[in-house]
Amino acid sequence: MKCIYCGTPLSGIDYCTGCGADVSLQKQIIRISNRLYNEGLEKASIRDLSGAIVCLRRSLKFNKENIAARNLLGLVYFETGEVVSALCEWVISKNMNVPGNVADIYIEKLQANKNKLDIINQTIRKYNQALVYCHQDNEDMAVIQLKKVLVQNPKLIKGYHLLSLLYLKRQEYEKARKLLKKAARIDATNTTTLRYLREVEEMTGVGTSLEDKKKRYAKEKVNKLTGTTTYMSGNETIIQPATFRDSSTVATFLNIFLGLLLGGAIVWFLVVPSTKQSIYQDANQQITDANSKMASQAAQVSGLNKEIEDYKAKVEEAQKTMDAADTKAQSYEKILEAANKYLAEDQAGAAQSLGEVDADSMTGAGKDLYDTLNTGLKTYMYSTFTNAADTAYVAGDYATAIENYQKAVEADPDQEYALYFLGHAYYNSGDTANANKTFKEYMEKFPGSERASEVQTYISDAATGAAGGTTGGTAGQGIMPNGDTGVTAGQDGNGTNAGTDTGAPAGDGAAGTDGSGMGTGTGDGTGGEYQGNGSDADGTGDGMDYTAG
């Protein structure tokens, strides 16, 4: 023992002879540490390993340089199967550089046996894997791993506890009792072991005896005259003769027969079970390896499927890029074709080629060329698309009319005519949603036009679905291109697609392309047809039949 202040060896007095410091408290602390070490040693000697660990840890808290306590703590850890904790304590003890430290011997013996170290590492990995299986509710695999752990390290208390806990969960109480008794032989007072045993006793109603049943024989004396041996077996006195003599041939053959029977019984009850157990272990190991291999292959298949999906996505993306590039290339070809025709004053061909161009794919100089051609051909394209749309509208081909009216609106958005009849084409085709949207766009662009009030009426009808309603409503209006709009003369219709008008709607003239005459006509407002007549600057013509909605 040395002074903590100056390092001078201490004597029996309470003062340091080197520096004069009061070392009574230091000596008291060291005495407490030594007393706790002695208590730990006593507990370890009666296999109270848990109590020994507690005492030895407290001893080291008072004096961390207590080499004996640290070495003993390592031995206790080693006895409970905690080899890593034992090595930690011995390495710390070795680094204190105390001559004659037995920790050096412990470490050398452990490191000299490489096979033992490999087994220790395997048991640690398998125990950790068993814990993972328990968290995953894979109890069967956990039991298999823990059995292997206890075969390789039969002193691992934690392994006994975890395996017995799994047995308790599966209500295999006798297996749990057997394991806990083995754990109790290693550490007699481990609280976890005793708690699990109490649970087993409560569930089975049978107590557990932890004492080994051993026959104790006390030899009393040997009688040299008679050659007999007298000894005690419990409370009984047994007198055994020194030799047995029987010279009969029958007895000899009987002994041989009994020996053969005994040998066969030994083989049957000892050798055969161990062989079966070895076969079962090999089979279980093969099953475990097969399951591991299947899991690995499943993971590989999943990874390959993921790669395939990624490649498919890349292929689809590349295909979209190629399609966009093809569309862009075709658009550039068409715009160049339109430019050549425009320079050759072939406006019809230029307009047709320009109409096939995807404007959204144009960028940079291509977009500028498209805008220039579109501006130059705007009037011609508007007139062409409008005429085609009017023809389709009059013929009742509203799908074609809608397509051409849309192109006309795109060609010249400032013209109300195409937008107005686009809304009516939607309306007559039954697409009230797009009709309502188009009429609203018309009201936003041309709120002060002559047709604004009429369009407002169609917005209301398209929004509510009341035009030609099933419970009565406004009689249908005859709207035809290149003429004036007829206005409904009467309302208050009743019944399904029927009504009674007080007047008839005026018809629309559609005889001429540039008609400007006022149309006249008659209608009954009951969902029937009406005939309109119109006249223009060049002649007269009959209007198309139109069904009132």
From TrEMBL:
Residues 470-549 are annotated as: Disordered. It holds the Pfam family TPR_8. SUPFAM superfamilies: TPR-like (SSF48452). Residues 509-531 have a biased composition (Gly residues). Residues 488-508 have a biased composition (Low complexity). The chain crosses the membrane at residues 250-271. Keywords: Coiled coil, Membrane, Repeat, TPR repeat, Transmembrane, Transmembrane helix. Residues 280-335 form a coiled coil. Gene3D superfamilies: 1.10.287.1490, Tetratricopeptide repeat domain. SMART domains: TPR. TPR repeats lie at residues 157-190, 382-415, 416-449. This is Tetratricopeptide repeat protein. It comes from Murimonas intestini. The lineage of its organism: Bacteria, Bacillati, Bacillota, Clostridia, Lachnospirales.
